[in-house]
Amino acid sequence: MKLFALVCASVLAVTALWVATSTVTTTASAAEPKDDASPIQGAWQAVSGEIGGKPLPEAAVKSTILKLANGKYEVSAVDGKPDTGTYRLPASAKPKRIDVILGVGPDAGKIIPAIYELSGDSLKICYSLRGSNAPTEFKTAAGTFAYLLNYKRIQSTTK
After folding, report:
1. pLDDT band at 148, cuts 50/70/90?
2. How far apart are CA 108 and CA 124, in angstroms?
3. In this structure, are 23 and 83 located in the same domain?
4. Which of 55, 90, 99, 153 is the S-S candidate for 121 at Cβ 3.0 to 4.6 Å?
5. For residue 48, pLDDT beyond 60
6. What are the backbone angles phi and psi of residue 48, rounded to the nearest 5°?
7. 47: domain range?
8. Residues 51 and 73 in one domain
9. Could you tell me if 7 and 49 lie in one domain?
10. How many domains does the chain have?
């Protein structure tokens, strides 16, 4: 009889542990974002870049700050004039896509297709400056119009 009670208690303990673990796992999964719409938002400082297989000048990299918020972007550059427009993250694209829609200048409305990789506080974007197809990999080569930038999130000082 004591053995039966011990086995029953063990089964109940294992079942309780399984239920508790399943609940925690389900709750954690439900809290994770389903896409990058929220995590990609913020201010991003360029840390390196290249175009057509050649590195960008350090001054151009250091002056490039990308701000993403609620489908709108702003990029500050070396000339001090911000570029603004909108962006969208097409669902289920592999690699992940970001389409940048220019908002100012003679090319306003033009879509710049790109791919991106978001990992914590690092963001990598490879743009196709010519054509309607996004790049398929994160690299540039001579004679192409691929434009690759690596960013680090700018941490907010306000809480």
Report:
1. very high
2. 24
3. no
4. 153
5. yes
6. -165, 160
7. 42-153
8. yes
9. no
10. 2
Instruction: Identify the pLDDT of residue 157.
Output: 62
Q: What is the 3-state secondary structure (H, E, C) of 42-99?
A: EEEEEEEEEECCEECCHHHHHCCEEEEECCEEEEECCCCCCEEEEEECCCCCCCCEEE
Residues 6+ apart with CB under 8 A from 84: 72, 73, 74, 75, 103, 104
C-beta atoms surrounding 133 within 10 Å: 8
Which pair of tokens denotes residue 122? 């690092």
Does 111 share its domain with 144? yes
Residues 32-60: b if buried by 16+ CB within 10 A, e if exposed: eeeebeeebebbbbbeebbbeeeebeeeb
* The length of the chain, given as a count of residues: 159
Q: What is the mean pLDDT of the chain?
A: 80
97-124 pLDDT, tens digit each: 999 999 999 999 999 999 999 999 999 9
